[in-house]
Amino acid sequence: MRTLCPPCRARWRPTVSRSSVFTQGFWLRDIHVPAAIALQRRFKPRPDDVIVASLPKCGTTWLNALTFATMARRAYPPAGADHPLRRLNPHQCLPFLEGLFKGGREAELEVLPSPRLMNTHMPLPMVPSAVPGCRVVYVCRDPKDMAVSAWHFLRRLQTDLAFSVVFESVCDGAVAFGPVWDHVLGYWRASTAMPDKVLFLRYEELLRDPAENIRKLARFLGMPFSAVEDEGGTVDDIVHLCSFGHLKSLDANKTGHLDPLLPVPRDALFRNGASGDWVNHMTAAMASRLDKIVADKMRGTGLTFQ
Ligand code: A3P
């Protein structure tokens, strides 16, 4: 068994993704440890940068698309036939911080014009300069649905993966970038302390009222919708452009793979697009066990998932 990863003194232990290490209180895939170190040492946000942050399987792809469409709406009207989101996967529209920092490609960030939009799955302590150095938009999701979504996603890589393995990892806190509660609470606490720097969103709320959440996002970004935009239906155009059904139908999201290092077909990012699917995968006892673990961790924080 491997013991310590020399640069970070990380502890190794088998998890769902067998190559995970526990470092600075979080489980990271070993390939992301160098990125975590580099981000802490060298990421220098600009004040007008925007970072979309989330745990995997909590609505990252959707929030990437919504934030990109909202920020870029003057250059790319959302109803336009040539909108980048009609020909690119949302992840191709903004850089992934750990992808750049793990590969020594961080200089690519420097040449991007402001305001830059970026994406990360890293817990906040791994990107300490982000708050209050720039603005962060975070999305969380009911951990039960996150577990189900993660299982379906990981099964595209490992077809015999049992749901119970993923479920136990979530309960143990040992999912990539987890524990879930510590990841969520880091951004939650930052959002309550500095609401002008961190916008905390929920996947379930985005589903319930996407238009209202897009308006909230635009206000947070300092670019609220004008009366002319309101009358012209810009918000509804963004809702439609980024909707599950629309994105899923596009060739850019039906073909190709996410990343050479992650040979998952892009269509795996668009599975069900709903909340509450956990009822089809968990017994009542499993659900209440995970709910209780999460509620215990959240107690006294002002954040709940029930
Ligand atoms: P399900 O597997 O429950 O369907 P991430 O982007 O963080 O990997 O999250 C993936 C989850 O978000 C998947 O959940 C996926 O279907 C859902 N999703 C992707 N795009 C979406 C959209 N435009 N609207 C709603 N849900 C979306």
TrEMBL record:
Domain Sulfotransferase: start-end pairs: 47-302
Enzyme class: transferase
EC code: 2.8.2.-
Keywords: Transferase
GO terms for MF: sulfotransferase activity
Cellular component GO terms, alphabetical: cytoplasm
Gene Ontology biological process terms from the UniProt entry: sulfation
SUPFAM superfamilies per the UniProt record, alphabetical: P-loop containing nucleoside triphosphate hydrolases
Pfam assignment, any one: Sulfotransfer_1
Keyword Acetylation appears in the UniProt entry: no
Family to which this protein belongs: Belongs to the sulfotransferase 1 family.
Protein name as annotated: Sulfotransferase
The species this protein was found in: Triticum aestivum
Organism placement in taxonomy: Eukaryota, Viridiplantae, Streptophyta, Embryophyta, Tracheophyta
